[in-house]
Each structure stands twice: as structure tokens, then as C-alpha cells.
Amino acid sequence: MHLIRRNRILRVSPAMRQMVAETTLRPADLIAPLFIIEGKGEKEEISSMPGYYRMSIDNTIAEVKAMWGMGIRSVLLFIKCADEAKDNKGTEALNPDGLMQRSIKAVKDACPEMVVMTDVALDPFSIYGHDGIVADNEIVNDATVEVLAQMSVSHAAAGADMVAPSDMMDGRILAIREALEQAGYAKTGIMAYSAKYASCFYGPFRDALDSAPGFGDKKTYQMDYANRIEAVKEAVMDVEEGADIVMVKPAMAYLDIIREVRNSVDVPVSAYHVSGEYAMIKAAAKMGWLDEQKAMMESLTSIKRAGAGLIATYYAREAAQLINGQ
Ligand code: PBG
């Protein structure tokens, strides 16, 4: 054979492969979600997310400092709200001394350069476990948006660099941007969960925060996984309304959506490698059916290759360690 083009030449050695790699992961690409609980010295493993923990603020701070040292540049905060503080309107979400607000301050004090993002949705604070206010068994859009805007201002006041609305109500990005402007938080950004699908892959997360919906499901606000064009509509509208970053969620089953959104907007695109996607790798690895590190790196690299420059993942720390050769 006298082939003119031999594609295997570029795969011949690790050095050659590294030289021509089109996609490389950096620790700064990774957003680390953190689950925060009340107390001191607390660290509870989440049963459906082996190796992942709910931590009190003091332990969270230590974790954030360690992550900064590994090159991770952003964290995404979630809190577990006490049952007694839950209601239908998310009252506790606006408490200036609430766990979220105290956590933001503590993390910013301990590691001022870390980009602190916060989840904005009512589900951890809702007696119904829904992302919005419930009336007559429905999730009410406009009244919810008002609370989300106030919640965002409250997070900005505590020092958040970006708010991350994960609720999928209509019009919330514009309402949040306007509320931030009015309150004088012109430097606070918005990472919009723009194409967030109604997905079974959130199951372990809802265990982590005890936030599973008490009735029904989230299909009247989160997207139908049958749809692709609708994701572009959501992302484009969020950019028009003032989103600084748009997100696709989940990630692995939605790589086509990540690419479609990447090709349709002019802002950074992030993807959320969600709890169920993490749990699947963990479970298969535990059974000895998959090599965990390889599955992790292949998954995260695929998500970046699809078009997500930023990836929220429970593997942030382990991936950063591996990238750093530690
Ligand atoms: C809450 C929220 C959810 C996740 C992030 N923010 C759960 C949900 O919408 O039910 C899921 C994250 C994950 O599964 O890792 N609005």
C-alpha cells in the first residue's frame, strides 16, 4: 500500500497525541458545587453520592482554600435548609442571616479571589420541594420571579460574585438583572440555567438537600428532554435578558444541546455534570465495571469538546488533582 494520508501518524505516541489534542481540561474550567449545612466540624457523606459530603461552614472553607490551591476558580453554593424554616414562599431564602448568606460571607472572607456562585431557586426552602411558589397545585411564575429577584439581591449583598438561577421560570433573568441594578450591584453576574431539563439524573442531589418535590414533578417548568430547538430559544432569550453565562443541564445525555447552544450564543457556555451522572460512574467503579478516573476524564473532556467551556461537576477536586499530576 502507498497511502498518501496516514491518520495514525498523529496517534503514534503519547507526546504526539498530546501535541495535537484539540481539547484540554484545566482546573479553571471546573465549577465545584458545595452542599452546606449548619453546625461546626460537620461532614456527612451523601449516601447516593459516595465520596461527596454535606459540610458545615468551617469545613467548607477549608475545602474552598484547598480547591483554590489546585487551580479551581469557582464554587457553586447550595444549602440544606432546616425543615422548620421551610414554607411556601421561600421566606428563609431572603433571611440576611440565613445559612446561604452566612456561607457566602464566610467563603469570600476566607478566599476572596474565588468566584462564588449561588443557587437561586426555592426548592431547598419550599415545603413542597418545588422551585417556585405553589398555588392550587401549580407553580406560579410571576410571584416566584419576584422572590428570586429579591433572593439574588440578598446573595449579592452577602458578597456573591454570580447568582445562578436554576428554577426555569419565565422572565427571571431580566427581573434579576433589573433588581441587581436597582440595588446597586452592577458587578454581580448571572449564570443562567437556561436549558435545564426535567431529568431523573437529579435524584441523588434531591437526597443531598432533602428537596424532592412533595407532589407531582417539575415538568411544567423544566424542559422536556425530547426537545432541542427549545433549548436554543431559552439560551438566546436568557442572553437577551442579561445572562453572562448560559448553562445546559444535565451534560452527558445532552452533548448535542451543549453544541447547539455553543453555536447560537456569544457568551460562555457551561454544563452541569449532575449528581446522577456522578453516581453512575461511582456505582460502576465500585462494582469494578469501570475505571473511575478514566470514566471521569473521558466524561469531562467530552462535555468540554461538545462546547462547554465551564463544567459544574462533583468530580472537580479529583479531576483537578489528576490534571495537576498529584
Ligand atoms: C434546584 C437544583 C437542582 C439541581 C441543581 N439545582 C435539582 C432540581 O432541579 O430538582 C440538580 C443538581 C444535580 O443533580 O447535581 N433547583
Short description:
This protein is an alpha/beta fold and 326 residues long. The protein is 38% helix and 20% strand.
Can you walk through the features of this model?
The chain contains eleven helices and twelve strands. With 326 residues, the protein is an alpha/beta fold. Strand 4, helix 3 (99-110) and strand 5 form a beta-alpha-beta unit. The chain has a single domain (22-323), classed as TIM Barrel, CATH 3.20.20. The mean pLDDT is 97. The strands form two sheets. It has an eight-stranded parallel beta barrel, surrounded by nine helices. The longest helix is centred in the middle third of the chain and has 18 residues, at 141-158. It is globular. The site of ligand PBG has 12 residues, from helix 6.
